[in-house]
Write a structure and sequence with these properties.
5 helices, about 15% strand, binds zinc ion
Length: about 170
């Protein structure tokens, strides 16, 4: 990637600002991130606008978890990826690109053909185990913090506090 298009602050800021690979449907999956060794996010309930699910898939093992923000287990995530997890993977691919998602989760997918479907298929083919949802509360609180930034007036300057979000590496849970 050439840096000819980068503005001065983009070059000088220590925070890497990564634009979405493609526009995302915020209403369906309002929050998704690659952090703490997981792909994790918040997914709206299809039927109840007042309910959201916190979904996650662990890098390497693909151990998955899905529960409501009130920590009730998701009925669809018994033994397999539920629709929330699938939607989250799809949105992560839009946000980060399939290649980066696959690399983070350590999915062996052909980079030339990787897309949400192939990444998801590669993980489900490995028959991942259901993980625990102990991180759900933490993910949800990060989502709420993220929401607070959406309410800020648009600005072209960097937000120093956004550097709180880890940009690289995984923190052992
Ligand atoms: Zn679910």
């Amino acid at each position: 990637m050439g840096d000819g298009a980068l503005s001065v602050w983009e070059k000088s800021s220590t925070a890497r600002v990564v634009p979405s690979a493609r526009p995302r449907k915020l209403a369906k999956v309002p929050f998704v991130e690659l952090a703490d060794g997981r792909l994790q996010g918040v997914v709206s309930s299809g039927s109840d606008i007042g309910r959201v699910y916190v979904s996650s898939v662990a890098a390497g093992t693909y151990a998955f978890a899905c529960s409501t923000n009130n920590n009730r287990p998701c009925g669809g995530a018994r033994g397999m990826f539920c629709n929330h997890i699938r939607a989250m993977i799809g949105e992560a691919v839009l946000q980060y690109g399939a290649e980066r998602v696959a690399r983070y989760l350590r999915v062996e997918a052909d980079a030339a053909e990787a897309d949400a479907h192939s990444v998801t298929s590669a993980m489900t083919a490995a028959r991942p185990a259901q993980g625990d949802s102990s991180a759900a509360a933490q993910v949800f609180s990060r989502f709420l913090r993220h929401l607070a930034y959406l309410e800020l007036a648009p600005t072209t300057g960097p937000l120093p506090e956004m550097q709180w979000f880890p940009t690289t590496g995984a923190v052992a849970a």
